[in-house]
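Consider this:
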Amino acid sequence: MVRRQLRVLSILDVARTQLYHFMAIVIAGMGFFTDAYDLFSVSLVIDLISYQYYKGQMGSGVKAAISSIALCGAVPGQLVFGWLGDKMGRKRIYGVTLVLMVVTSLASGLSFSKRLGKNVVTVLCFFRFWLGVSIGGDYPLSATIMSEYANKRRRGAFIAAVFAMQGFGNLAAGIVGMVVSAAFMNSRKSNADFVWRIVLMFGAVPATLTYYWRMKMPETARYTALVAKDAKKVASDMSSVLHMHIVPENEAVDELARQDQYGLFSVEFLRRHGVHLLGTSACWLALDITFYSLNLFMKDFFTTVGLLKLHEGEDEPFKRMIRITAQHTTLALGFSLPGYFFSVAFVDRIGRVRIQLLGFAMMSAFILCLAIPYDQWRTGEHNKYGFAVIYGLITFFANFGPNTTTFIIPAEIFPARLRSTCHGISGAFGKIGAIIGVFAFVYAQRHSHTRSMLFALVGCNLVGLVFTLLLPESKGKALEEVTGEMEEPPQPEQAAAAVAAAECVHVVPV
């Protein structure tokens, strides 16, 4: 094992917050903006697809397929691209996922067929599956890149800031849906076909805009030093990033190359990190069952309690689309985004594990507030706006809780050579949970068991809470210290030298 931390990594750990940190947040975050936009925008346009091709009578199975097919693609995407990120480098694979995302976003809006109806939906599902593959690949790569670029004092906030772009993507889906629908308000109703296509294709825009900057970003120092073991390359790359001269540590890196490093399927990995991988995977699985059930079927809940009229807009598809997207946008602004902001502000103060425990507990409490009096909510005996507020509080504590921390923790607690792979495995279990949630909700809705489904979501949160106890706290620690790659802490003189070097860097104070 590594007996001491490389000096270049020590400098990265103690460097004050500066411009390259913000550049990394924006570049990695725009991928997440696109991911969220693509995943959640489809739930907003299903009504229009139903109106255009099924005369408003789309079956629940078709709705489930359209809603979940991208999630199905995300599972192999996270596994394959996570593994490739460790084998071929974060930067190289990052570019591949972005190109695939742009192409499949455009193709989703260009889903045509000579026969209407199910054939168009089949083509749409085909392209959204591959879109899901690219989205899945973006998860482990974005998290790993940001964790390996960040300093240890604000690493959690930086990774949370990348993930917070999911909230802006969710918000953008509502705004774009409203704007495009309003633009076609006074046109022929057959133009609904253009509306849903434009909304889906817009997802290619932010991904395209960041491609150039993604390709200019250098490979992370930890991959180059600890995985590729290229001392000259890491010194050159980080000298450019930090605007200082860094001497290559050839002997230290050569020593790394001679060490026997355990693999994913080894007994040593099982002993050191097996429980951790179980914890991150189980927590993400439990969280996404709840998170995607509530987010993708928000319209159905709001229709049930009277916030949306069941038959409203059968002949006015654009008006109904505007109402759906307006409520989606209001919840995003009032509850979802503040949850992300709270995570950014407090994750390095409170700690990842505590925030995750708080989130699971509060989500359980508020879901019970919906489930216990659900029949009263449904029959209008309670204030329907109270239902919306409680619903919003669930999303707040999901984002100021496990939705953010399940993304952060796997990027910090596994060794560099397995970090992207293990994050991909954890995320894949999350997307499996999302698929379970989608189909379970469709089944519950079809058999009038929605209240029972809400109680099941409470059980999922409690499972996540229990498995959170298996995870180590990584707040304020160097990555190599958390993962066990650095068995000896830096000597005082080495730490002082690193601090002195970092203080010479041109910084942007925060």
